[in-house]
Amino acid sequence: MQIRIADVAKDFGRTGALRGVSLDIRDGELIALLGPSGSGKTTLLRVIAGLEIPKTGKIYFDGEDATGMSVQRRRIGFVFQNYALFKHMSVADNIAYGLTVLPRAERPPRSVIRQCVQELLDLVQLSGFGGRYPRQLSGGQQQRVALARALAVKPRVLLLDEPFGALDARVRKDLRRWLRELHGRTGHTTVFVTHDQEEALELANRVAILNEGRLEQVGTPDEVYDNPASAFVMSFVGETSSIPVESDGSGLMHEGRRIEATFSGSCTGPARLFARPKDLEIGAAAEGRLPGRVVNLHRTATGRRARILVGSGPALVESEVDVAAALAVGDAVGVIVRRGRVFPA
Amino acid sequence: MRLKQTSALPGFGLSVGYTLLYLSLIVLLPLAALVAEAARLGPGGIWLVAADPRVSAALRISFGLALAAAMTDCIFGLLVAWVLTRYDFFGRRFVDAAVDLPFALPTAVAGISLATLYAPNGWIGALLAHIGIKVAFTPAGIFVALVFVALPFTVRTVQPLIGEIDRGVEEASATLGASRFQTMRHIVLPMLTPALLTGFALAFARSVSEYGSVIFIAGNLPYVSEIAPVLIVIKLEEFNYPGATAVAVIMLAIAFMVLLAINLVQAWSRRRFANA
Amino acid sequence: MPEQKRGQAILPSVTTEAPVVRTILIAVALVFLALCLILPVVVVFNEAFRKGLAAYLSTFADPDALAAIRLTLIVAAVAVPLNMVFGIAASWAIAKFEFIGKSLLITLIDLPFSISPVVSGLIYVLLFGAQGIVGPWLKAHGIEIIFALPGIVLATIFVTFPFVARELIPLMQEQGSTDEEAAMTLGASGWRAFMTVTLPNIRWGLLYGVLLCNARAMGEFGAVSVVSGHIRGVTDTMPLHVEILYNEYNFAAAFAMASLLTLLALVTLAAKTALEIRYGDALAHTARF
Fold this sequence. Notes:
Structural class of chain A: alpha+beta
Oligomer: heterotrimer
Radius of gyration of chain C: 23 Å
Strand content of chain C: under 5%
Distance between the termini of chain C: 34 Å
Largest interface: B-C, 98 and 106 residues
Mean pLDDT of chain C: 85
Shape of chain A: elongated
Distance between the termini of chain A: 40 Å
Shape of chain C: globular
Number of strands of chain A: 20
Number of strands of chain C: 0
Largest sheet of chain A: 10 strands, mixed
Mean pLDDT of chain A: 88
Number of helices of chain C: 13
Radius of gyration of chain A: 25 Å
Order of helices and strands of chain A: EEEHEEEHHHEHEHEEHHEEEEEEEEEE
Number of helices of chain A: 8
Structural class of chain C: mainly alpha
């Protein structure tokens, strides 16, 4: 099912405000709503679900205006951050719930429901757990039951609210992989909310980045990573350092001196130059390079990093350096910007 | 032998000693008198008293009406607790405080006031008389008094649990297509059942032992509207200590068994519905 | 924050009932409560003033009535402080220490709540009454307990001693012992720690418990009725006097007396609510009966 969100605004939800967000979600895609807390991503998800009513704007499901539709009629599957499993029901009863509350005319016979539950248990790899109760399951298992429960009613779209937020890192990684495989197999339109950019970049077909209730950018992981549309996106997705510069249309000036840098984006006047650690290179201080001094050297899981105080400070940049490079704290260096991006200050 | 974990805090001896002394004087000694008197009667003597038709009638009335009142209070108590916790309306705080009235009001005051209210010429009594219902001086009057007295027990037991319900579970139910009524029936009510049972037990215990609020409205006609506590008082006034003790012991025994049964049901329901 | 208009739910719309349902439920609840709770109180004052203010006031000119009021006040003045000390001692013992028999102790403290007030009075009669266990001995020495002030005080103590303890025990358990331990590491003696650290921590819970204890002590009927002998002017407390007046068909006077007790109840409720609103987190977070 494709979803069109048209200029949706909401004053106060339980989470954050939304200011005129418009977004088109394609049929069958796995899209992530990414942003810091308070950015409105959970509010947006709940608006799609019908758990919150927008103040202005409209939602369309496959072209049909769904803005006023009750949550029950929307046929969505919602997975909550803390699972919200019915503790007094067994796993099987939890999964069957959506089917048991159907009106009599539409309700399938009990044997069909039982079979459906069994198929879903197999799908989420919890066959045989039907008789257990939520308190007997681990966090990861509970989340899979929640997913199975949401899938039982054959939803048109799956909405996941920070589905792995309450789990520890190892389980999170496993479940991420598992969710991607599941999506590949079932092809449901899936929208999930996360504040973890690694998760968004790894899982999603497209990423929608929200900040303070506004949609900053939507695109594939490559697009938002390599071509960020704003300073926020650039610094939120992936690591960045930035320094204040002056742009005069033909080049960049830093503290009055012209610097040579390969960069994209154009503007005039005060600006900021953003660059990722791997796109900065440390060399000897020279004309056209950013002057700086090494203030910190540390190892990382993948190599070595240097933190450099640029110019008269206080701007700091981080750069990846060769493990073998002969650098020491206090060295005066010149920073070469191999690839950067400029945004207005 | 270590009687307690050693703790740096002082005052163990003083506090426990004083507590035990007080309890012994005020509680244990008089209770021992009860036990002694009951022992003197022996099971045979107690059974003899229980078999007395007037006594068994009074017990039937006491326990039967207490059950009915407790159940009524469970239903209305749930309603009141829900309305007070989930909705907001003008005067909600006031109403919330008023629920404790039966608990704070002296039983004798409640007694004469209810008797006046439901008497044939009372405000409500007159209205009911129009449709042929007589409340004062009948078992119905006892029922009304017990409903009044036990209400706070059901409301206050359920209220905190209603406030603690995880809204996400109700939302989950809605996203799965359940109507509001279905959510209440399948999800909310089961979650509240343990508390409802506790409230029922407390309301029942209170209703069985109630005296002051009942005697004015009841009429106290033997075999019809005479409750067990009244019988105890009558026997005491006749200096029939054994008789009074016997009735008291029977009351305690039955109440104990009923509460035990409720406790078992509660433990089951907590396992079944609560599962923290 | 979702709006809180009249009749509106405090919560977002998915997890609450339709407005029509809400209104009906509120109406039913309010009607039930009005009938059940409010009307009786209204009746008390209506009947008390039925014959006018003069008749109302004359009730209290009667010496027996004054004696009843005096007796009630004396009983409360003795029972409440004693129970307060007990409550503090018991909750200190239970909250700060582990020992064998602790749960038995807690059960014993809950006992008066599980037995009928009439039975509470009965046990004292069995002990001290004319044909009771120590009755003859008391008579021989001219000591009167049953049908006299001491009996009434004892029965009242029995019925009301749990109130302070039941409020303080969970409160002190919630608060733990770290404050007192900190005081002691700083050199305070046990008493000093108690006076300067514990008491201030529990003061609102203590006040709350004392309020409830007092209300029940002044209003107790069943237990006192059994031990008092109903001797007008001597062993009549206010609730018993209400009964006497009512049984004599002296309704106006009975309700006049009752109105005083009702005022006490209302003041207690108001004070209790005020404490809960203002100092809610300084009170124990459990059901309080």
